[in-house]
Specification:
The chain folds into two domains: 120 residues, no CATH class; 303 residues, ABC transporter involved in vitamin B12 uptake, BtuC (Orthogonal Bundle), CATH 1.10.3470. By secondary structure, the chain is mainly α. The protein is 66% helix and 4% strand.
């Protein structure tokens, strides 16, 4: 059932919950024009980086080799790029994008243009970094996708919670506990599916604890989330030293899910190995992503969730149980984060290590904000952060004059820039973080 078929008081134009409609139309138009010009200037800055850092000092004879093949099954010819000409062309394209961005009175395409500019800058950087060497583009893209899987699931977890009005800072803790449980159960039972199921349930359990304190006892949601993160670090560290280290072979040596090729589709050049020859976590991420998108914006359940997140009192007046909706979404978000946490062990490394999530739960939360509380927006942000994380491994094997410590900082620096500088003004659900009690 579509949103137009269901009327919820407080969700219409001019209602207190319709936060995006509270601003006068003229003000929104002025803000859109200002953001359009700012993004146009950002594209000029990207062009300046290409010209000033990558093209400057490059000889006309320098070349970079891009490899698009993945494994022996699919062999594509190597692409030899003249480096100076490539940098100049990419820089000019960024300038043209900036001019169009400023002159074209369309505020709906600003993120598309900026995304294209960032992509061009990334290509320019890779060409400069791989001067005289071969850059494995296909491997970089596959690694980026794998790195983006837990970030996407964590962002979807936060989105499910915050769309119902509960802030979930505990994604990091859900990741850690699920990774630990998935490794232990998968190793002890020899069944990876049991490890995946138990990891998801462990994430749901942390979500339930968050719901009890944040919803029933009206505790500060941010403080509860931070405490649960610290609790997860301490708990998994204790059991790692007391149980897993003494019995590594039995309790911390699970196998990992292997790739599941989709016949015929996996042989498509470039796209096939990237999308159709992955493990179960990639396919689960796609399924959950589509389910959340359709569920939130195309079903009665989704409208009720958004009504609770925007104006819980109005939702309560039409018979929606606000507490039940929030409990259900927080636990469901914990399960989704648990699947992402299990991917760290039984989907990737094959064993649990101390604090192995390394703050990725917070980056997933940033991806949710960067994606403006929308599933596919969160996916785009997660892919961006996953690319920056994968980039450090690619650059480490190239002769790049950048210290390794700075390469390690790439994903976190990209997170700060994205949230603080590129997103602009974001509007969360109106009742996000606010406790509700019936009168």
């Amino acid at each position: 059932m579509s949103d137009e078929q269901i009327e919820v008081p407080g969700m219409g134009p001019g209602a207190p919950g319709a936060s995006s409609q509270q601003q006068p139309r003229e003000l929104r138009r002025d803000l859109g024009a200002l953001r359009r010009r700012a993004f146009g200037i950002a594209l000029f800055v990207l062009a300046g980086i290409i010209f000033g850092l990558f093209a400057l000092g490059t000889a006309a004879s320098d070349t970079t080799i891009f490899s698009l093949s993945a494994g022996p099954a699919i062999r594509l010819p190597l692409i030899h790029l003249p480096l100076l000409a490539t940098e100049l062309v990419l820089g000019i394209l960024c300038v043209l994008l900036g001019v169009v961005q400023i002159l074209w009175r369309d505020n709906k395409r600003i993120y598309l243009f900026l995304g294209i500019g960032l992509t061009l800058t990334g290509i320019a950087f890779l060409a400069w970094a791989g001067k005289g060497e071969k850059v494995d583009v296909e491997g970089l893209l596959i690694t980026s996708l794998i790195e983006a899987v837990p970030l996407t699931l964590g962002a979807l977890s936060g989105l499910l919670c915050e769309r119902s009005g509960v802030i979930n800072i505990a994604i990091e803790g859900q990741f850690l506990v699920a990774a630990f449980v998935g490794a232990v159960v998968g190793s002890a039972s020899g069944n990876l599916w049991a490890g995946l199921l138990c990891g998801a349930l462990a994430g749901g359990l942390i979500g339930l604890i968050l719901a009890v304190f944040a919803i029933t006892y009206a505790a500060d949601q941010i403080i509860v989330g931070v405490v649960l993160d610290a609790f997860a670090v301490g708990l998994t560290s204790f059991f790692l030293q007391s149980l897993l280290v003494p019995d590594q072979a039995t309790l911390n040596s699970p196998s990992v899910f292997g790739p599941i090729p989709i016949p015929f589709l996996n042989r498509i050049p470039i796209v096939g190995p990237l999308l159709f020859n992955q493990n179960i976590f990639v396919y689960l991420t796609v399924i959950i992503l589509v389910a959340v998108q359709v569920g939130l914006f195309r079903t009665r359940w989704g409208l009720r969730v958004r009504a609770v997140g925007e104006h819980p009192r109005a939702a309560d007046t039409v018979g929606i149980n606000v507490t039940r909706v929030r409990y259900r979404n927080v636990v469901l978000g914990g399960i989704v984060a648990g699947i992402g946490g299990a991917s760290f062990t039984i989907g990737s490394t094959g064993q649990f290590a101390y604090n192995m999530t390394a703050g990725l739960g917070y980056i997933a939360l940033a991806a949710m904000i960067f994606g403006r509380w929308r599933p596919f927006g969160a996916l785009g942000a997660a892919l961006l952060f996953g690319f920056t994380d994968a980039l450090q491994f690619t650059l480490s094997v190239l002769n790049v004059p950048i210290p390794s410590a700075f390469l390690t900082m790439f994903p976190y620096l990209a997170t700060i820039l994205a949230v603080a500088g590129l997103v602009g003004r974001v509007i969360p659900p109106a009742a996000d973080g606010q406790h509700y009690a019936r009168e």
